[in-house]
C-alpha cells in the first residue's frame, strides 16, 4: 500500500494504519526540540522520545526509528504531526526528503482526543505526542497539499502578501481612529486612505495645527503644483484650511497626534508598497506555467486570484474527485439533526484552508457583481 493512494481516501485510511507491519510515530513539534511517541497495533513501543532540531538530533531520531523497526518486526513507518505554527514545515520537508511517509492530523482532533485520555486534560509535550499517535491509530489523518518547488515558493510569497494585506487593513482602522481624535472633520473628506494624495497629505500635514502653522497662502501654495496635489482639486485644500480653523479636535501641545498620524501614514504606505511587491514576485514566478494561464481563462479571474487559487490547491492531479477540493476549502456542509435544529439552514464546516476559502469568496463576489447569469443564482 502507498500512502499517496490511501491518504486522501477517508474510507481507506483505517485500512492503511491497521497493517501489522506498520510502525506509527506521533511527533509534537516545537521550536528547538521535538517529542515523539512510537506505537504499533498491539503496544506502545516508546512513550517518551525527545530530539533536538539539529543535524545530530535528527540523526539520533533516525537511529531510534531503525532500532524500533527491528524490535517490533515492522517493515515501514508512518510519521504524523500537527500543522500548527511554522516549525512543522522544516521537519516535514526534512522527513519527506529522506523518504519517510509523513502525514498530518488536525489540531482540534488532537485536543479533543487528549480530553479522553486517562492522564487527564493537562497539556505536556509527551502527552501531545501520545495523543497525536492515538489519533493516527484511529485513521484520522490527512495529507498536506502537494506542491512542487515553484508552487511552494509562490505560496510563501502569497501568504506574505496576505499578511501585509491584513496589516494594511489594521493600519487603516488605526489611522481612521487617530484622525477622529485629532481632526474629525478630515474623515469625511478622505474616502480612500490608500490613495497616493491622501497618504501624502497625512504624511505631511495631518492635524489642524500643522495646517495653520504657516498661514493660508503658504499652505495653498505648497499644495498648488499638480504632481503634489494629485487628484485633489485646489478648492479642496481651501476647504481643508477652513475646516482646520474651526476644528473641534483634541488640543495637543506636545504634537503627539501629529507624530502618530504621520507614523501610521508612513507605515500604511510601506505596507501597501511591500504588499504589491510580494504579489508581483509571486505572479512572475507562476507566469510561465500552463495551469496559471488556464485559470486566467475563467471569467472574472485575474492574475492575483489565479496565483492564489493555484498555490492553495497545489497539484490538481493529486485529487480524485471534487469533494476533496470542497473539503480542502472548508465548504463541506455540516448537518445537525437534533430537536428544533432540523429546521435551521445547514452551515459550512470551515474545517479547511481559510486562505483558499477567502479567494473563492472573493471571486464569487466579483461574479455576482459583474456577471448577470451568475447573479440569478
Describe the 3D structure:
The chain is α/β, with parallel strands linked by helices. It has three domains: 3-144, Nucleotidyltransferase, domain 5; 151-282, Helix Hairpins (Orthogonal Bundle), CATH 1.10.287; 287-375, no CATH class. Helix content is 55%, strand content 10%. The chain has 18 helices and seven strands. β2 (33-39) and β3 (44-52) form a beta hairpin. α5 crosses α6 (125-137), α14 (290-296) packs across α15 and α15 (303-313) packs antiparallel against α17 (354-370). The protein is elongated and about 90 Å long.
Features:
7 strands; Helix Hairpins; two-stranded antiparallel ribbon; Nucleotidyltransferase, domain 5; 55% helix; alpha/beta; 377 residues
Question: Topology of this protein?
Answer:
Layout: H1 3-6, H2 13-17, E1 22-28, E2 33-39, E3 44-52, H3 55-71, E4 76-81, H4 87-97, E5 101-104, H5 107-115, H6 125-137, H7 149-182, H8 196-204, H9 208-212, H10 216-222, H11 226-229, H12 234-245, H13 256-286, H14 290-296, H15 303-313, H16 322-328, E6 333-334, E7 347-348, H17 354-370, H18 372-375
Parallel strand pairs: 1-4, 4-5
Antiparallel strand pairs: 1-2, 2-3, 6-7
Helix pairs in contact: 5-6, 7-13, 7-15, 8-13, 14-15, 15-17
Amino acid at each position: 500500500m502507498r500512502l499517496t493512494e490511501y491518504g486522501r481516501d477517508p474510507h481507506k485510511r483505517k485500512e492503511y494504519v491497521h497493517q501489522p507491519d506498520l510502525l506509527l510515530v506521533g511527533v509534537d513539534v516545537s521550536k528547538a526540540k521535538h517529542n515523539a511517541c512510537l506505537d504499533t497495533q498491539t503496544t506502545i513501543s516508546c512513550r517518551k522520545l525527545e530530539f533536538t532540531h539539529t543535524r545530530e538530533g535528527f540523526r539520533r531520531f533516525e537511529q531510534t526509528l531503525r532500532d524500533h523497526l527491528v524490535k517490533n518486526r515492522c517493515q515501514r513507518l508512518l510519521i504524523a504531526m500537527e500543522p500548527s505554527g511554522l516549525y512543522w514545515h522544516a521537519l516535514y520537508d526534512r522527513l519527506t526528503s529522506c523518504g519517510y511517509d509523513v502525514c498530518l492530523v488536525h489540531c482540534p482532533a488532537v485536543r479533543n482526543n487528549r480530553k479522553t485520555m486517562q492522564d487527564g486534560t493537562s497539556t505536556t509535550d509527551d502527552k501531545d505526542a501520545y495523543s497525536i499517535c492515538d489519533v493516527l491509530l484511529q485513521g484520522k489523518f490527512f495529507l498536506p497539499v502537494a506542491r512542487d518547488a515553484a508552487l511552494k515558493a509562490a505560496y510563501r510569497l502569497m501568504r506574505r502578501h496576505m499578511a501585509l494585506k491584513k496589516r494594511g487593513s489594521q493600519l487603516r482602522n488605526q489611522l481612521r481612529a487617530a484622525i477622529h481624535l485629532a481632526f474629525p472633520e478630515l474623515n469625511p473628506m478622505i474616502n480612500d486612505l490608500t490613495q497616493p494624495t491622501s497618504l501624502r497629505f497625512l504624511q505631511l500635514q495631518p492635524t489642524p495645527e500643522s495646517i495653520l502653522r504657516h498661514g493660508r497662502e503658504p499652505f495653498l501654495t505648497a499644495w498648488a503644483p499638480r504632481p503634489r496635489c494629485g487628484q485633489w482639486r485646489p478648492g479642496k485644500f481651501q476647504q481643508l484650511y477652513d475646516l482646520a480653523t474651526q476644528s473641534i479636535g483634541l488640543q495637543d501641545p506636545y504634537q503627539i497626534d501629529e507624530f502618530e498620524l504621520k507614523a501610521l501614514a508612513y507605515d500604511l504606505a510601506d505596507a501597501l508598497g511591500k504588499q504589491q511587491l510580494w504579489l508581483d514576485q509571486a505572479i512572475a514566478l507562476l507566469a510561465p506555467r500552463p495551469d496559471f494561464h488556464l485559470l486566467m481563462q475563467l471569467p472574472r479571474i485575474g492574475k492575483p486570484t489565479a496565483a492564489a487559487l493555484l498555490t492553495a490547491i497545489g497539484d490538481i492531479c493529486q485529487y480524485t474527485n471534487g469533494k476533496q477540493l470542497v473539503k480542502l476549502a472548508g465548504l463541506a456542509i455540516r448537518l445537525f439533526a437534533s430537536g428544533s435544529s432540523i429546521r435551521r439552514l445547514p452551515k459550512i464546516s470551515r474545517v479547511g484552508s481559510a486562505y483558499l476559502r477567502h479567494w473563492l469568496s472573493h471571486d464569487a463576489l466579483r461574479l455576482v457583481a459583474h456577471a448577470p447569469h451568475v447573479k440569478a443564482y
